[in-house]
Amino acid sequence: MLELDVNQIERMVSTFLWPFFRVASFFMVIPMIGSRLLPVRIRLGLAIAVTVLLVPVLPEMPVFDGISGENVVIILQQILIGTIMGFVIQVLFQVFVLGAQIAAMQMGLGFASTSDPANGVSVVILGQYYLMIVMMLFLVTNGHLIMIEVMVRSFTILPVGGESVATSSLYKVALAGTWLFSGAMMIALPAITALLVVNFSFGVMTRAAPQLNIFAIGFPFTMLMGLFITWISMGDILDHYYKMTQFVLDYLTGLIVTESG
User: Fold this and answer.
1) Which of 2, 168, 195, 199 is deepest in the core (most CB within 10 A)?
2) pLDDT class of 1 with cuts at 50, 70, 90
3) CA atoms of 232 and 70, how far apart (whole Å)
4) What pTM was estimated for this model as a whole?
5) Domain segments of the chain: what residues?
């Protein structure tokens, strides 16, 4: 009878413990929930609540067999998988922040920086503005629910106790920096192009009339033109968001499938 009770306890613990490590590591890295604005206790409580809700719909978990090296490896695998998935979503937000920083540097707003309370770093005001817009779009389009759904599907595609994370998946995560910079450049390209034309025009005027103090009005005019171009380009931020989100979902799905293969 005692052995039966121990087996039941081990099965109950394994049913909750293995998914909890993946869910908790995912919530520690994902934007908004994993930011410094949310205390660690609240994040852990949210991870526990989500794990309890997901346990009935998840596939059968391997039985927890005390403290052993195999269990430590499984725990590390779940933490790594959850961290990778959260990191890819974090890159989605940083694409817009980096694009705004590139545009701000070109228009002369690089000195106007503020402290980002979510990440604890100093960013330009335009980057913080873009980050707030992307966060609102993420919540309005139920992006948080979609990310949780992708995480739930990962338990079926990449079950607990299966093979370790493939080297190709880690290589794909490393390559995430490439589309981080390419996506940011695509967002900042309209402002960069317009400001390049403006600076080229000022250069021609300076060569044509050296006695005119063009640079005295060049800096404020460049800033105003940059703000105007940013205001115009805000109409396309939703299209950029949809394209980037679709790319991240495809990237994340391919990442999980590669791991399972």
Assistant:
1) 195
2) very low
3) 56
4) 0.77
5) 2-260
